[in-house]
Amino acid sequence: MKRFFKPIEKDGSAKKPTRSTNQEDSEKKEASELEKTNSNGNTMKKEPLKFITWNANSLLLRVKNNWPEFSKFVSDINPDVIVIQEVRMPAAGSKGATKNSGEIKDDTNSSREEKQILMRALSSSPFRDYRVWWSLADSKYAGTALLVKKCFQPVKVSFALDRTASKHEPDGRVILAEFETFRLLNTYAPNNGWKEEENSFQRRRKWDKRMLEVVVQLSDKPLIWCGDLNVSHEEIDVSHPEFFSAAKVNGYVPPNKEDCGQPGFTLSERKRFGAILKEGKLIDAYRFLHKERDMERGFSWSGNPIGKYRGKRMRIDYFIVSEKLKDRVIQCEMHGHGIELDGFYGSDHCPVSLELSPASPDSIES
């Protein structure tokens, strides 16, 4: 979708306050406690604390059209982990052959050129400081990516909800990274669609059923579940509840009234999402900190600035954390604002960030 506006860059000119020697010594000591040395002598930090999730709506398009602004944003936030949805790069493998969902296609002139454009962008600052994992669809559809700073080392990275080695979910919708003290689950949930069909309502019901099972299975270790979850849990999570509740396509009305309305805001989806949070003992980090509707900065998806969806916004991108982690949540913010999509960097989704405080020794041992 072509955009008709330019993202506004942050003003980074504010002068930092002078720090005392004692403050600096304290910060150095805290940093040293978070680090360890691996067998190769490289300094490794125990666990990431700062995260960004973003539905890029085609990472290649963002590289071509919005990369300087997004690079500045990442440099300013300086996250330890970046998770991306809707990468929209095809998996490696020739036509008719088995695809390698962990690698980008480069067996044609056009695909090779596109891969080179993307990899050049990821080898520039600040992204060259990150290691990248991919889970890709067979075509330019869906797909996810995980970028982790090289000073962190996941214990394991898998690409399927059942954690089967080398297996990828269809369309590359899942990346699960396990660290020492928690797991990080990046998902791109399938859109509910508008009809009672196999690739619409039925597909989303199956996905939600599997997610409920997964979060319960993963409850032996604190979980951070993030990404485009394609659901707005409560009325406070959309800008215009009446508009979204009444939305329909071509006059079609589903047989079950709980399936009526905008995909992502039907009552059935919202109920299932609530059940997942309850059964998994999970907390919505943003809503934990922000109790009221914020019409300026409280939504992560925005409709086209031209047309009936102008100004219609939803919060469908999340950081969901285990109850065990809630007291460590320092901040969780939407970084886009306004109906002109400032801070969306060309996508229809804005980045969302999460920051945790360091784990105490007691919490690590438990």
Automatic annotation (TrEMBL):
Biological processes, Gene Ontology terms: base-excision repair
Presence of the UniProt keyword rRNA-binding in the record: no
Site label Transition state stabilizer, positions: N230
Residue ranges of every copy of the Endonuclease/exonuclease/phosphatase domain listed in the record: 52-349
Ranges of compositional bias, category Basic and acidic residues: 1-14, 25-36, 102-112
UniProt key word Repeat: no
Top EC class of this enzyme: hydrolase
Residues binding Mg(2+): N55, E86, D228, N230, D348, H349
InterPro entries (UniProt xref): AP_endonuc_1, Endo/exonu/phosph_ase_sf, Endo/exonuclease/phosphatase
Annotated protein name in UniProt: DNA-(apurinic or apyrimidinic site) endonuclease
